[in-house]
Design goal:
This protein has about 260 residues and is an alpha/beta fold. It has 2 domains: about 10-185 and about 225-250, Rossmann fold; about 190-225, no CATH class. It is built from 9 helices and 7 strands; from the N terminus they run βαβαβαβαβαβααααβ. The protein has helices at about 20-30, 40-55, 70-80, 105-130, 155-175, 190-195, 200-205, 210-220, 230-240; strands spanning about 10, 35-40, 55-60, 85-90, 135-140, 180-185, 250-255. A 7-stranded parallel sheet has the order 3-2-1-4-5-6-7, sandwiched between helices. Helix 4 links the parallel strand 4 (about 85-90) and strand 5. Helix 4 packs parallel to helix 5. The radius of gyration is 18 Å and the shape is globular. The termini are far apart.
Length: about 260
Amino acid sequence: MSGRLAGKVAMVTGGGSGIGAEICRHCAREGALVAVTDVRQEAAEQVAAEICQAQGHALAWACDVADRNAVEAAAEGVEKELGPLAIWVNNAGISRIVPFLECSDELWDLTLRVNLKGTFIGCQVALRRMLPRRRGVILNMSSQSGKSGSSHYAAYCASKFGIIGLTQSLAIEFAQHGIRVNALCPGVVFTSLWDGQLEDYARKRNLSPEEVKPYLEARIPLGRLCTPQDVAAAAVFLVSDEAAYITGQALNVSGGSVMH
């Protein structure tokens, strides 16, 4: 087995679609044994099957990231089937575009439950398994919305800003134990998650749905939207030994839209 992640066990949450699925594929191509986890068992199994068909190694688990027992069970299953976890990617998340005064308690709680609490639980479960070995890498998925606030996006921004703070805190606390913790901050990626909020974004900007993509592209210095492949390539770098001296960082993958 060859590649930058050869023989390493990598667990990716939200791996059944979009960015998470592409991170799974990239990790497998670099030689990792990939645990594809998703709240939807069928989606996870589909991605794992695709990786195996491409001569990679992957297995699927169903997992609600905000359910500690489910995350613990998945991690136990992964280590039993694949071996000690070396890489943990907290990618699962949700997003809704809604005016702040229309944001319900339920939507606020759900967004922070999945995005921030889910990352918190994932980090705790990963760290408790990595600490005895004094090695491991955790990668948390934030967003450019974790660097700059945006209207109609308060719950999402709050959750993604929180992930960066959590990442920095853990990087400091666990560096002495040989564990690195970083975050990624992608720009707009047109996945199924974005498809579900396209009309809401169009209304926010007084655009037609067809005008949204050109509008967004015109605001990006590199002139195009971020892709799952862009994010996955950055993810593989940060979890590889090539980034051995990088921890506590929140790396922008935004085409120049955010530079801080």
